[in-house]
Design brief:
Blueprint (H helix, E strand, L loop, with lengths): L3 E4 L2 H7 L5 H10 L4 E6 L5 E6 L8 H36 L3 H16 L3 E8 L4 E9 L10 E3 L6 H5 L7 E2 L7 H7 L4 E9 L2 E10 L9 H39 L1
Antiparallel strand pairs: 1-2, 2-3, 4-5, 4-9, 5-6, 7-8, 8-9
Helix pairs in contact: 1-2, 3-4, 3-7, 4-7
């Protein structure tokens, strides 16, 4: 309950705890170390650290609790620094990319590294037709997204609620319906997360990341992904403004030619 526990019979505890690899159980038995302290670290506490030794006593629990708090703080700092690094990388990519396609290619690589994900997909919103159009995919097996190159928002069980204000969350393969479950399962994906790309209150697209290893719903995937979505939304909006300007220039040139 408190995140730290004194263990008086480590070999017996290793046999009882679910999920402990057999190799660890064997090492504990061979070491013949009876006493141990196990503590959960992280925010939320998803990682377990164990120390074993004949010198360990219940009186050591407070010191290990303090150590666990220090490890949790260090992990949080590392995650924050990684997110800041990724945002800075995206700012640099945004400043140097010659076009939207190049920004998507280089920017999605930054997202992939920051989240250790196996796929990054970006859909752009066609507001006139209320559709999401696939703009970019980074990952293996790009053919799995061919059936989803054009997604009607109103009939999408996944994107529709999200674009209407739903809360982003980490989903697992079992949470998806067909044909998404079959297609993404065949490619080995286990978990997914999607956030809208927004310019102020206006949605311009969505970004989805996929993982081949199951991710816990409480992991800080959504928070990091939200922080990285801003430069993508800005790039999409900048491209829209450039396209509008080019169209207006073309219309003015055509009007001048017609007038002559």
């Amino acid at each position: 309950r408190e995140g730290v526990m004194f263990i008086g019979d480590a070999p017996a505890a290793a046999e009882r705890i679910e999920g402990v690899p057999g190799g660890i159980r064997e090492v504990v038995r061979e070491a013949r170390l009876e006493r141990a302290i196990a503590l959960r670290v992280g925010d939320p506490p998803e990682t377990v650290i164990a120390a074993a030794g004949d010198w360990i006593t219940p009186a050591d629990v407070p010191a290990f609790r303090l150590f666990g708090a220090q490890v949790t703080a260090a992990l949080a700092s590392a995650e924050a620094l990684a997110a800041v690094w990724a945002r800075n990388q995206l700012v640099e990519v945004s400043a140097t990319a010659p076009g939207l396609a190049d920004f998507f290619a280089r920017g999605s690589a930054v997202v992939q590294e920051a989240l250790a994900c196996d796929g990054v997909a970006i859909w752009l919103l066609d507001a006139e037709h209320d559709e999401l159009l696939l703009g970019h995919f980074l990952g293996e097996n790009p053919e799995i997204l061919a059936p989803f190159a054009r997604v009607p928002v109103s009939s999408s069980r996944y994107f529709g609620p999200l674009l209407r204000g739903g809360r982003p969350e980490v989903l697992h393969l079992d949470d998806l319906e067909e044909p998404e479950r079959r297609a993404f399962g065949a490619a080995g994906f286990q978990s997914f997360a999607t956030v809208p790309l927004r310019i102020r209150s206006r949605v311009v697209g969505v970004m989805t990341v996929g993982f081949r290893q199951r991710r816990d719903p409480h992991q800080a995937v959504i928070g990091t992904l939200r922080g990285l979505a801003g430069p993508f939304a800005a790039a999409v909006e900048t491209q829209r403004l450039v396209d509008d300007l080019r169209r207006r220039v073309s219309e003015l040139e055509l009007m001048n030619v017609t007038a002559v």
